[in-house]
Specification:
alpha/beta, binds glycinamide ribonucleotide
Length: 210
């Protein structure tokens, strides 16, 4: 059994999708813990109700990013993680933290990276006149919302879209590609070379949604 530790900051719908896919599809893995930098994160309540160990670590209680990340790493490592999953974890991570989990930490981001890293991705895609938007699962590297791309889902941007409408079209696609990407990692199906990720058996790393 491989151990997955999931980090969230809020709603946790991607975390939920991963927990459910893991149980439904019988992955050789378990979600060993769900951790948050916010005690009020709704996803913590849901995870605890599933019997998953949870903990909150308030970043405001630490003097520096490095101090917070060191304590977070201690909490994560207590669960002997094979994979760390960032699922709406809205903290910039220190270089040391990223290096510690390099090659075994994934993130989901609601844009077609490398377009629109950072915040307000949906509005920025609309403002740029994009006709396609989407979501990306990638390995985490020191640069924010960069790193080798594991899977992407694309959806249309429709005339008159608001950021909320576009986000609502993209989120279900995140719930498709993120569990799939995590499962591939757990099964040892992903190879990374020269910053590019391939699936060993050639599974499609693209979803057309919306
Ligand atoms: C998701 O849309 C995720 O892609 C985004 O936050 C949301 C979290 O939702 N993450 C980022 O913007 C990271 N840069 P969730 O808590 O329901 O999974």
């Amino acid at each position: 059994m491989k151990n997955i530790v999931i980090l969230i900051s809020g709603r946790g719908s991607n975390m939920e999708a991963i927990v459910q896919a893991c149980a439904r599809e019988g992955w050789p893995a378990r979600v060993a813990a769900v951790l948050s930098n916010k005690a009020s994160a709704a996803g913590l309540t849901w995870a605890a109700a599933q019997g998953i160990p949870t903990a909150a670590l308030d970043h405001k209680a630490f003097d520096s990013r490095e101090a917070f990340d060191a304590e977070l790493a201690r909490l994560i490592d207590a669960h002997q993680p094979d994979l760390v999953v960032l699922a709406g974890f809205m903290r910039i991570l220190s270089e040391g933290f990223v290096r510690r989990y390099e090659g075994r930490m994934l993130n989901v981001h609601p844009s077609l990276l490398p377009a629109f890293p950072g915040l307000h991705t949906h509005q920025r895609a609309i403002d740029a006149g994009c006709k396609l938007a989407g979501a990306t699962v990638h390995f985490v590297t020191a640069e924010l919302d960069h790193g080798p791309i594991v899977a992407q889902a694309a959806v249309p941007v429709l005339p008159g879209d608001s950021a909320d409408a576009l986000a609502a079209r993209i989120l279900p696609q995140e719930h498709l590609i993120y569990p799939r990407a995590v499962r591939w990692f757990i099964e040892g199906q992903l190879s990374v070379a020269e910053g590019r990720v391939t699936h060993n058996e050639g599974a499609s790393q693209v979803v057309w949604g919306g």
